[in-house]
Specification:
The chain is α/β, with parallel strands linked by helices and 281 residues long. The protein is built from nine helices and nine strands. The strands form two sheets. Strands 2-3-1-4-5-6 form a six-stranded mixed beta sheet, sandwiched between helices. Helix 7 (179-192) packs across helix 8.
Length: 281
């Protein structure tokens, strides 16, 4: 499993990598920006081999020089090639522009992410877990599904727990759901809230669903007109499917495609029906 460790400058990324490796493999300094490039470090835990990708710290765009821009580009590349991302947030400073920029990149790439709150030993006297969780939900609403681990990388506290959570996310992202189970769940979700058509448009009919890929779990819905599906309804379906399927803490990709089924609802296309029959057996 490739684990990209990203965050702004001086969030403790290199300290965390060294804690994972059990030795000093990456230069650690109090001076922000010591790491200039992405560094791969192999480590082993419970008989499994992992690769931690330590990335250069990112600074605000208006403060970037040429080297900083190159470092940010490499950080984005590390997110793309990672299986799971550990988003390291410094608990002692407010979430800012750099954190949000990295979050947008993680969401765009549909990567499973563990939110690691580092330096919690310095922050827990000023706040508590519930208050910080509420603050985080407001500051980063597009990652409300992501698990949170409170860390003190300097002391190695909860570092192993973060890896266990990352491994669980990796497994979730590779889950496959049978077509029969998926359609049963889809019918439940649509029954709870039918897609509302725009004024003057045809009624939206969703005939059939199938999972076509993993990492991220990708589900295709066959319907009468994909253009009629609003973004609000897409988000509703994603949230409910996450509740009902084993994808509770990982991003999903939902696609809506035009179906060959008639508007009277004669069923899925022939090829899809054959696949469903095979999967059920």
């Amino acid at each position: 499993m490739k684990l990209a460790i990203v965050g702004k400058r001086n969030a403790g990324k290199s300290t965390l990598v060294n804690a994972l490796a059990g030795e000093e493999r990456v230069i650690v300094s109090e001076i922000p920006g010591t790491t200039r490039d992405a560094v791969d470090v192999r480590f082993e835990k419970d008989g499994r081999v992992y690769v931690a990708i330590d990335t250069a710290g990112v600074r605000k765009k208006r403060s970037m020089n040429d080297v900083d821009f190159y470092s940010f580009t490499r950080a984005l590349a590390s997110i793309r090639r990672a299986d799971v991302v550990l988003m390291l947030i410094d608990a002692t400073v407010p979430i800012g522009e750099v954190d949000l920029k990295l979050v947008r990149a993680i969401v765009y790439e549909h990567k499973p992410v563990v939110i690691g709150i580092n330096k919690w030993d310095l922050a827990h006297e000023k706040t508590d877990i519930e208050a910080f969780d509420e603050y985080l939900a407001k500051a980063v609403p597009n990652l409300v599904y992501a698990p949170i681990v409170l860390l003190t990388a300097r002391d190695g506290k909860n570092v192993d727990a973060a890896i266990d959570v990352a491994l669980a996310l990796h497994k979730q992202a590779h889950e496959r759901i049978s077509t029969a189970k998926l359609n049963e769940t889809m019918e439940q979700v649509v029954g709870e809230r039918e897609p509302m058509p725009k004024r003057g448009t045809k009624r939206i009919r969703i005939y059939y669903a199938t999972q076509v890929a993993t990492a991220p779990p990708t589900i295709v819905f066959f319907c009468n007109n994909p253009d009629l599906v609003t973004e609000n309804y897409r988000r509703f379906m994603e949230n409910r499917l996450r509740d009902l399927l084993p994808f509770k803490e990982v991003p999903m990709r939902l696609e809506f495609r035009a179906s060959g089924a008639k508007r009277t609802g004669e069923g899925p296309p022939r090829s899809a029906a054959s696949k469903d029959s095979h999967t059920s057996r």
